[in-house]
Amino acid sequence: MKNKLLLVLSMSFFVGFSAVAQTASDTGPTYTANIQPLFQKYCIACHDSGSDYGNLMDYNEAFGLRKKIAALVDGGRMPKGHSAITDDERDLIVQWANGGAAQ
Ligand code: HEC
User: Fold this and answer.
1) Whose Cα sits closest to atom 27 in ligand 1?
2) Between 25 and 83, where is the model more confident?
3) How many CB atoms lie within 10 A of CB 12?
4) Contact 29, 64 (CB under 8 A)
5) pLDDT tens digits along 49-71
6) Helix (H, G, I), strand (E, B) or coil at 7
7) Is 45 touching ligand 1 by the criterion CB < 6 Å?
8) Which residue of 34, 43, 57, 73 sits with most ligand 1 atoms within 8 Å of its CB, as the best mutation to test the pocket?
9) CA angle 63, 51, 73 (to 5 degrees)
């Protein structure tokens, strides 16, 4: 029972990641296709429209924060308290933020 749950979980991570990797390889990661889904998964709990620390669901706010996003995600300080994010997902966010944060 427990093993089955783990298998389903790891499969959904894998499918989710390959979808991200595939779209990213064409033109580089974009907010809409690659990054907002990750923010939704890992950041929205603290960075929605009511947040004092920036609403990462809004492209313009995320764009304005791109330098900080790169530094904090690369340094492992964000997502705060979240250990589920993978190294590949971190790399993709940092690559996006450092590469001009395309919409
Ligand atoms: C559990 C809550 C929580 C989660 C999840 C979280 N953050 Fe944060 N974030 C904070 C808090 C609180 C601050 C304020 C500074 C501090 O306490 O470190 C902050 C600050 C920031 C800042 C600086 C904002 C500014 O105006 O200086 C950025 C950028 C940021 N977070 C990005 C992210 C990203 C990207 C994610 C997801 C990958 C994320 N955070 C996930 C709580 C969170």
Assistant:
1) 53
2) 83
3) 10
4) no
5) 999 999 999 999 999 999 999 99
6) helix
7) yes
8) 43
9) 50
The pLDDT of residue 4: 63
**CA–CA dist 77, 89 (Å, integer):** 14
Task: Give the number of the atom of ligand 1 that is nearest the alpha carbon of residue 45.
Answer: 5
9-51 confidence digits (pLDDT tens): 555 555 555 555 555 555 799 999 999 999 999 999 999 999 9
**DSSP sequence for 43-79:** TTTTSSTT-TT--TTSHHHHHHTHHHHHHHHHTT-SS
CA distance 82 to 32: 22
Question: Which residue from 40, 32, 38, 51 is spatially nearest to 85, judged by alpha carbons?
Answer: 38
Length, in residues, of the chain: 103
Q: Is the pTM of this model over 0.85?
A: no
Locate the ligand 1 atom nearest the alpha carbon of residue 38 and give its number.
Answer: 38
Locate 70 and state its tokens. Answer: 């790169």
